[in-house]
């Protein structure tokens, strides 16, 4: 594994250049738009979660054991992405790429559990078009799952780029904003776990 980087890097290589600062700032603006988008999906779900004229209710189908494992895996992946950025600041490319790889593996595990969960729900009659509740559920949770899948692909490509180009003031901002993105989707999941699953199981 290459550990090449172009000379000694500054303490915060992700914002060492104007381009890097612009990437980080632009990404914060992007996350602001994402917050609005997810906020709309949450509002829609909350408005429709009791609309179950036919089909199972949230209390009947949700299994907190599976969702609990999913939550544990995703939150742990957030921690491994923190380790990756710490390694980046220490200019240790090998450790950076290792922790990003672990983050990707945790993300894949999360997606696997979510797919398993959705298949189980469909078998129990909880399909996308079963009710307004099911449609809003799959839209919100599925949209988050798509974000996780995108993050996995993105970080995987960055790992390959890191192997090829090393750690520089050009690649550092990319690693940094990817970690920000991963923290964001982890935070969104905490809200999903609370609003969708916990509120669904304890009643309305």
Q: What is the string of helix and strand elements? A: HHHHHH
State the total count of DSSP E strands: 0
Outline type:
elongated
Q: Estimate percent helicity.
A: over 70%
Summed up, the helix count is: 6
Overall pLDDT confidence: 89
Beta content comes to: under 5%
Stretches with pLDDT under 50, minimum 5 residues: 1-6
Biggest β-sheet strands, sense, barrel: none
Radius of gyration: 19 Å
The secondary-structure class comes to mainly alpha
Could you give the distance between the termini?
53 Å
Characteristics:
204 residues; mainly alpha; 6 helices; disordered N terminus
Describe this structure as you would to a colleague:
By secondary structure, this protein is an all-alpha fold. Helix 3 runs antiparallel to helix 4. The longest helix has 34 residues. It is elongated, with a radius of gyration of 19 Å. The N terminus is likely disordered.
Write the layout of secondary structure elements.
Blueprint: H1 18-48, H2 58-61, H3 64-89, H4 93-123, H5 132-165, H6 172-202
Helix pairs in contact: 1-5, 1-6, 3-4, 3-6, 4-5, 5-6
Quick structural gist:
With 204 residues, the chain is an all-alpha fold. It has helices spanning 18-48, 58-61, 64-89, 93-123, 132-165, 172-202.
């Amino acid at each position: 594994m290459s550990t090449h980087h172009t000379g000694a890097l500054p303490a915060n290589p992700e914002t060492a250049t104007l381009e890097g600062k612009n990437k980080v700032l632009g990404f914060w603006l992007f996350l602001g738009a994402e917050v609005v988008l997810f906020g709309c999906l949450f509002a829609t779900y909350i408005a429709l979660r009791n609309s179950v004229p036919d089909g199972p209710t949230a209390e009947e189908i949700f299994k907190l054991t599976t969702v609990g494992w999913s939550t544990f895996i995703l939150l742990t992946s957030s921690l491994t992405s923190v380790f990756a950025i710490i390694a980046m600041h220490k200019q240790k490319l090998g450790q950076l790429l290792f922790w990003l790889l672990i983050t990707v593996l945790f993300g894949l595990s999360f997606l696997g559990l979510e797919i398993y969960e959705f298949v189980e729900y469909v078998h129990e009659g909880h399909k996308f078009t079963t009710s307004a509740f099911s449609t809003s559920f799959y839209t919100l949770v599925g949209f988050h799952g798509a974000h996780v899948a995108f993050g996995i692909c993105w970080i995987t490509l960055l790992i390959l780029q890191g192997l090829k180009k090393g750690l520089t003031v050009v690649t550092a901002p990319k690693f940094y904003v990817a970690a920000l993105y991963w923290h964001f989707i982890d935070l969104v999941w905490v809200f999903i776990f609370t609003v969708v699953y916990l509120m669904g199981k304890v009643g309305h």
